[in-house]
Amino acid sequence: MLTAEVKLDAGQAPAARAALAGLGIGGALVPAGLREAERKLLIMDVDSTLIQQEVIELLADYAGKREEVTAVTEAAMRGELDFAQSLHARVATLAGLPEDVIAKVRDAVVLSLGAEDLIEAFHAGGHLVCVVSGGFEQILTPLAERLGLDHWRANELEVADGKLTGRVLGEVVDRAVKERMLREWAAQHGIALEHCIAVGDGANDLDMLAAAGLGVAFNAKPKVRAEADAAVDLPYLDVVRHLAGV
């Protein structure tokens, strides 16, 4: 599998953005059918991809469990732990937190640099933008609505009597679910998988990166960088549009 790596300091980013389309990096890596497709589908992970933080760690701050939760998150993203089991263990540390911490965390979320530009470029070209997250609906839905995303899915935190129970409701969004949502959304809109671009940073994203026509590792863990089609080691998410020819 061919891999294109973009390693630049943040100060070099403006030049990188302008030059990527002409460097041949995307053209050499991405099949012409994808670059020239009339309609494409971009699907992204959320935590540490669309946004700069890991939401579970922001929530854990309020429970005084940040270090414990961060260690589990890192192991899961490296592929050392089963994601569903790790999620249940991390969410359990949140039991008893007041529901209003969700709003506080929502307000603290920061988009990755270039995220809005990337979304606007895809939409301007008539393409779809979707996100699928191992994080939480209560954080993602207002953000997705504000950004005008076409589809999104995440886990739902259980709340009872105004407090988090330490559990999630329904099926956990793991790597298999992420790939399934890519396939379902692409089929719903009549877009071939070959015309899809998937972006993520952790092991939970590997299946959807493999299924898409172009899988991009964004500031990713070593295992993900090794298996993705392209690896972007730059804090600017809108670099992806140049790889995809948008």
Q: Which helices and strands appear, and what pairs or packs with what?
A:
Layout: E1 4-7, H1 13-23, H2 25-29, H3 32-35, E2 41-44, H4 46-50, H5 55-63, H6 66-77, H7 83-92, H8 101-108, H9 115-124, E3 128-136, H10 137-147, E4 151-160, E5 163-169, H11 175-188, E6 196-200, H12 206-211, E7 214-218, H13 222-227, E8 230-233, H14 239-243
Parallel strand pairs: 1-8, 2-3, 2-6, 3-4, 6-7, 7-8
Antiparallel strand pairs: 4-5
Helix pairs in contact: 5-6, 5-8, 6-7, 8-10
Give an account of the 3D structure.
This is phosphoserine phosphatase. Its EC number is 3.1.3.3. The protein is α/β, with parallel strands linked by helices and 246 residues long. It has a single domain, classed as Rossmann fold, CATH 3.40.50.1000. The chain contains 14 helices and 8 strands. The protein has helices at residues 13-23, 25-29, 32-35, 46-50, 55-63, 66-77, 83-92, 101-108, 115-124, 137-147, 175-188, 206-211, 222-227, 239-243, and strands at residues 4-7, 41-44, 128-136, 151-160, 163-169, 196-200, 214-218, 230-233. It has an 8-stranded mixed β-sheet. Helix 10 links the parallel strand 3 (128-136) and strand 4 (151-160). 47% of the residues are buried.
